[in-house]
Amino acid sequence: MPLEGLLYTHPAHRPNAPVVRLDHVTVRYNGGGAALEDVSLELAPGERVAIVGPNGAGKSTLLKVIAGLLTPSTGAVDVYGYTAGGHICIGYVPQRTQVDWSFPVTVADVVMMGRVARIGFLRQAGKNDWRLVRESLAQVGMADLAGRQIGELSGGQQQRVFIARALAQEAELLLMDEPLTGLDTPSQEAIFDILDGLRARRMTVLLSTHDLHLAADRFDRLMLLKVRLVGFGAAAAVLTPANLRLAYGAQMTVIATPEGALVLEDTCCEGHED
Ligand code: ADP
Ligand code: MG
Questions:
Q1: Ligand 1 neighbour 98 (Cβ under 6 A)
Q2: Does the CB atom of residue 181 touch ligand 1 within 6 A?
């Protein structure tokens, strides 16, 4: 076995396995109440899925169990047919509020971090790695800012750098925790343009958002979460008045219009990022 082979703890993919499979997953923090309860679901290759639900619904927790950062209290999480945990194929972008932006690293350094797992610890970054870093930054329109400190960028630019890191890592599954929160519409559109480009790579994208309209308009499927999985499928099937009341209860006003459309107002989380 070549030396690099010994350094890879990440298993290969089982043929025909779903990208992600959760089987009756329950997560309790410190033995408290369930943050996620009895969630079972599968993701297919190349699909783009939005997780929606009120604050505290378990969106971040769900992303973390798939990323392998948290182990479920009960139930199983598989990624490409193997128990989740350190899969090299997963690019995880944490919520912006959870990142220390004062950490002194350049944009290129952040993207190179995506290469570390591929390179292995005993080797140094080579020409090919730096080429991939440059290409990844170019793909998200950030090549010019490679030398900047990450903390100096706007929120939308920071999200793009993290996508570039996942590209440099050659990730096949991209997990993003509220990447659109706090961004203006042009910055959100820039992210969607990049995600559209990822379809050609068949990259599977799972991201959480507070924005039900964006979730309904721009994603293949929606996951409505309130500790339990309230609904998972096409927007029209998931965002029913009954499901929305179940998920949001008094936090949301649901108004049926003559066209049968709904006006939805999330009144719980204004100006609240976490
Ligand atoms: P969301 O991302 O949908 O707002 P989270 O997954 O962050 O929801 O949180 C789900 C539940 O788990 C909440 O009740 C939250 O308070 C709790 N929780 C999240 N992280 C922790 C933690 N590290 N320790 C204890 N409880 C936590
Ligand atoms: Mg969250």
A1: no
A2: no
| Distance in angstroms (rounded) separating the CA atoms of residues 221 and 224 | 10
Cα(197) to centroid of ligand 2, in Å? 26
Task: Please name which of 58, 43, 51 lies closest in space to residue 223, comparing C-alpha atoms.
Answer: 51
Residue 61 CB–ligand 1 contact under 6 Å: yes
**HEC per residue, 66-103:** HHCCCCCCEEEEEECCEECCCCCCEEEECCHHHCCCCC
Indicate the length of the chain as a whole number: 274
Which residues make beta-bridge pairs with 254?
Answer: 264
Domain spans, the chain: 20-238
Please give the torsion angle defined by the CA atoms of residues 203, 71, 32 and 272, in that order, rounded to the nearest 10 degrees: -30
Provide φ and ψ at 78, rounded to 5°.
Answer: -115, 140
pLDDT in tens, 161-214: 999 999 999 899 999 999 999 999 999 999 999 999 998 888 999 999 999 989
Predicted TM-score of the model (pTM): 0.89
CATH class of 20-238: alpha beta
The vertex-180 CA angle with 176 and 183, nearest 5°, equals 145
| DSSP string covering 16-46 | T--SEEEEEEEEESTT-SEEEEEEEEEE-TT
Provide the residue type at 266 as one letter.
Answer: D
CA 168, CA 103: separation in Å to the nearest integer?
21
